[in-house]
Design brief:
Blueprint (H helix, E strand, L loop, with lengths): L1 E5 L6 H14 L3 E4 L10 H11 L2 E2 L3 H7 L2 H6 L4 H23 L4 E3 L3 E4 L23 E4 L6 E4 L4 E4 L13 E7 L2 E7 L3 H11 L4 H10 L8
Parallel strand pairs: 1-2, 2-3, 5-6, 6-8
Antiparallel strand pairs: 1-9, 4-5, 7-8, 9-10
Helix pairs in contact: 2-5, 3-5, 6-7
């Protein structure tokens, strides 16, 4: 069985469209999303509609939560007013129906051979420093996202894979990233997309601090907020 996990799209329509083209060649049996479908990007409504219409099951991410539960920002990343402005713009662009869909996403998905979460079993906002924290999920393979840096590690008793980010990679590689599990063997797959097109879309979308997201996309790295 061939399974794909697509995570951390962050409203990047250009990147997810390139990934969809790649998936047509991969022909997976099942596609799941790892959360952070929405937040920080140019095309929130279009990306949420695309994922919903494709019928992908998945989990909730922290930027999804900040849209349906605004107080989660103050609880987890206080002191950055700009994030509230970006979230308010995204919330308005999505509308209540799409936000309700994000609200219904589960925090964990367990399958026969693996588990899917966004950050950690306990938190949507913080990933554990030690892979042993994933043992509570009681699966041989755990996939998560959140850190935007793909990797695969196998300790012998449990394997942990990070699917990276489709729309906002932080590992110095501009290409979209997703996880392919082919007959229980995980691998990271990278997909080129038109970064300049997405940066142009960000500049035109009207989201506060869109230049901040554009800089992170261009550098493929996390950047401190402006100001």
């Amino acid at each position: 069985m061939r399974i794909v996990i697509v995570s951390d799209i962050h409203d990047n329509l250009t990147a997810i469209e390139a990934v969809l083209a790649d998936l047509r060649d991969m022909a997976p049996d099942l596609v799941l999303h790892g959360g952070d479908v929405a937040g920080s990007g140019s095309s929130p409504a279009e990306v949420v509609d695309l994922v919903r219409n494709l019928g992908w099951s998945g989990v909730c991410g922290n930027t999804d939560e900040m849209l349906f539960r605004p107080e989660s920002l103050d609880e987890n990343v206080p002191g950055i007013p700009l994030l509230k402005e970006m979230a308010a713009w995204t919330r308005e662009a999505l509308g209540e129906n799409r936000i309700a869909w994000l609200r219904e996403l589960p925090r964990v998905q367990k399958f026969e051979s693996f588990a899917l979460i966004h950050a950690s079993p306990e938190s949507l906002w913080r990933s554990p420093a030690d892979d042993a924290a994933f043992a509570s999920l009681e699966r041989n393979l755990v996939s998560y996202g959140h850190i935007h840096r793909p990797y695969f590690r196998n300790s012998g008793t449990m394997a942990v894979a990070n699917s990276g980010s489709v729309g906002l990679p932080f590992d110095g590689d501009q290409r979209a990233s997703y996880l392919l599990i082919d007959d229980s063997v995980p691998a990271i797959r990278r997909v080129e997309y038109d970064v300049a097109k997405e940066i142009k879309a960000l500049k035109q979308c009207g989201m506060p601090a869109s230049a901040w997201t554009a800089a992170m996309i261009e550098k493929a790295a996390s950047c401190p907020p402006p100001g």
